């Protein structure tokens, strides 16, 4: 049997299960009562891992949560269609599908063969973790001009091969392969 976690013991970035749904704790506040006999309350900012919704909820300190049956598996991106995206599990070699709702904007960072971590709950895929950095080729951007930095224009919009539009330094040109930090959608270097 899975061990139980008291609400007071839940920490930031911890996973727990409530009413059959896995959650990720994003933040925690404890309010201790000033009156005698008052109950300590724990307010959790949490993300539902199935719907990706984020909300706050208050619990009693001794409320219990189960540890969720979560698993991360290494996979590579294969392709996508109207039903979602398909990945190859690198351990079992089975094809895993994630719906477009589960993916969010992750497809903007994925090329065929990109390695990702697929999150599974009770054996079913529920989401993915992108690598920290991806390398993409600039498909379209305006040329940079000498003196751009004098006018304060140090970045410009660029469209990547996947359709991702982001700001890049003015020295980046079409055809350049650049490194992108996936979490902040930021330019991380030229290859």
UniProtKB/TrEMBL annotation:
Source organism of this protein record: Terriglobus roseus (strain DSM 18391 / NRRL B-41598 / KBS 63)
Record flagged with keyword Cytoplasm: yes
Coiled-coil features, chain-numbered ranges: none
Keyword presence, ATP-binding: no
Origin superkingdom: Bacteria
Pathway(s) it belongs to: Protein biosynthesis; polypeptide chain elongation
SUPFAM superfamilies xref list: Nucleic acid-binding proteins, Translation proteins SH3-like domain
Keywords from the named record: Cytoplasm, Elongation factor, Protein biosynthesis
NCBIfam families: efp (TIGR00038), PRK00529.1 (NF001810)
One GO BP annotation of this record: peptide biosynthetic process
SMART domains: EFP, Elong-fact-P_C
Domain Elongation factor P C-terminal: 134-190
InterPro entries per the UniProt record, alphabetical: Elong-fact-P_C (IPR015365), NA-bd_OB-fold (IPR012340), Rib_uL2_dom2 (IPR014722), Transl_elong_fac_P/YeiP (IPR020599), Transl_elong_KOW-like (IPR013185), Transl_elong_P/YeiP_cen (IPR001059), Transl_elongation_fac_P (IPR011768), Translation_prot_SH3-like_sf (IPR008991)
Domain Translation elongation factor P/YeiP central intervals: 72-126
One GO CC term, this protein: cytosol
GO molecular function terms listed in the Swiss-Prot or TrEMBL record: translation elongation factor activity
Chief subcellular location: cytoplasm
Compartment list: Cytoplasm
Record's protein name: Elongation factor P
Family: Belongs to the elongation factor P family.
């Amino acid at each position: 049997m899975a061990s139980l976690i008291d609400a007071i013991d839940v920490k930031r970035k911890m996973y727990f299960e409530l009413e059959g749904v896995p959650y990720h704790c994003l933040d925690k506040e404890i309010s201790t009562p000033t009156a005698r006999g008052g109950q300590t309350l724990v307010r959790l900012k949490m993300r539902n891992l199935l719907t990706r919704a984020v909300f706050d909820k208050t619990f009693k300190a001794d409320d219990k949560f189960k540890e969720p049956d979560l698993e991360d598996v290494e996979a590579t991106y294969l392709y996508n269609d109207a039903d979602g995206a398909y990945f190859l599990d690198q351990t079992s070699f089975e094809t895993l599908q994630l719906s477009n709702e589960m993916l969010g904007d992750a497809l903007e960072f994925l090329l065929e063969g990109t390695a990702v971590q697929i999150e599974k709950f009770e054996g079913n895929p529920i989401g993915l973790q992108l690598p920290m950095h991806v390398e993409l080729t600039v498909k379209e951007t305006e040329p940079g001009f000498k003196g751009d930095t004098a006018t304060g224009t140090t970045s410009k919009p660029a469209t990547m091969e996947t359709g991702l539009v982001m700001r890049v330094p003015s020295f980046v040109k079409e055809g350049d392969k650049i490194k992108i930090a996936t979490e902040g959608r930021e330019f991380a270097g030229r290859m």
